Amino acid sequence: MVETEPISKSEVLSDIPWGVVVHDDPVNLTSYVTWVLMKVLSHPKAKAEALMWEVHRLGRSVVWTGNREMAELYAQQLQGYQLRTTVEKAGE
After folding, report:
1. Which of 27, 31, 40, 77 is the most buried (most CB within 10 A)?
2. What whole-number distance in Å separates Cα of residue 79 and Cα of residue 65?
3. Which GO terms describe its biological process (predicted)?
């Protein structure tokens, strides 16, 4: 019989993906938002444009998902380019 160790709550929580959300604002041009998404997140132009239009039409878009530490880093970098961002648990 193989024994396994129980999974701790922190191990389970660390597997929950986090999303970086960009919110619409009346200041930044659509071309600028596209450029920032390409520069910070390394998205190809087509993906960056699609995400930018989602922000423009729906008021927000999840532009990246992954672990919490990277989500917070990306959100901070996007804020450095004056984009309004938040970090949320994915699916919320």
Report:
1. 40
2. 17
3. protein catabolic process; proteolysis
- Which long-range CB contacts under 8 A does 43-52 form with residues at least 24 apart? 51/22
pLDDT range class, residue 2, cuts 50, 70, 90: very low
Where are the domains positioned within the chain? 13-89
Answer whether 22's CB lies under 8 Å from 78's CB.
Answer: yes
Q: What is the pTM of this model?
A: 0.82
Q: Which of 59, 54, 62 is nearest to 20 (CA)?
A: 62
What pLDDT does residue 62 have? 98
Q: Cα separation of 24 and 6, whole Å? A: 43
φ/ψ (deg, to 5) at 82: 70, 25
